[in-house]
Give the backbone structure.
Amino acid sequence: MTNRPWSLAECVEHYSQSGIPALSVWRNVINPDEGGIGLDQAARLLGSSGLQVVSLARGGFFPAWERAQRAKAIDENRQCIDEAAALTAEMLVLVVGAVPGMPFAEARKQVAESIEALIPHAEACGVKLAVEPMHPMYAAQWSCIHRLSEAREVCELLKHPLVGMAIDVYHVWFDPDLEEEIHAAGRQGFLFAYHINDWRADTQKIQGDRGLMGDGCIDLPAIQIMMNSAGFKGFHEVEVFSDKYWNEDQSAYLELILTRYRELMCAVAKRADTKENSRNGSHRAS
Ligand code: ZN
């Protein structure tokens, strides 16, 4: 989705040439009804690419007033798990859903029950399920899980090695318990995926207005250091939905992404160094 104007084949080609080791795939890219290339062709393309497939995005949308509708959502998610397995994706990312007017606590209960119902199929296919907490501006229809603690509670309730979280800085940067929650998730093995981008201070709309790292106001080095110290060893996935960048030349944009990513990693190293030095300094002083 970050290089949305490119086909999957173009993404594979350009990412491979740039030394990017992995990617995640959105379902619209493979769904023929949405102009996608079909599951088999996508699986062949990715299989021969040498790129690792981190996740398939996205499943979820579980809560519903009617039981039959909830069952239908679970069936659709079983299909998502099959697709993830066919693409050798490590996990399915879950945007858990919300229903306007339904209390969030009830919606979260339905989410937990639905994920529980999916576990046997996830086990059979060897696919992890990653709950992605989402910024409350998506609370009406997309997600009843906004804070990391709410995602953690679902993971703790189900307590299964295939159930964890996708941490997207866009959705969690404001969380008052961010550091404690990332560490708590790390201790319990819930940190499955990590999405990076930025929150533009003058954000105009809820879709298609994300920033690239450095465009906005998120303290990305701080969050990266939290993820590192919580033991996260997975990929750093640049996930930017941006009408602005989608209108630009994608090769130049990919270069910019790589530059910004390297700058972020330098800032992280510098910050970690400063922290280490000040710790040593205070030891010496004491
Ligand atoms: Zn994300």
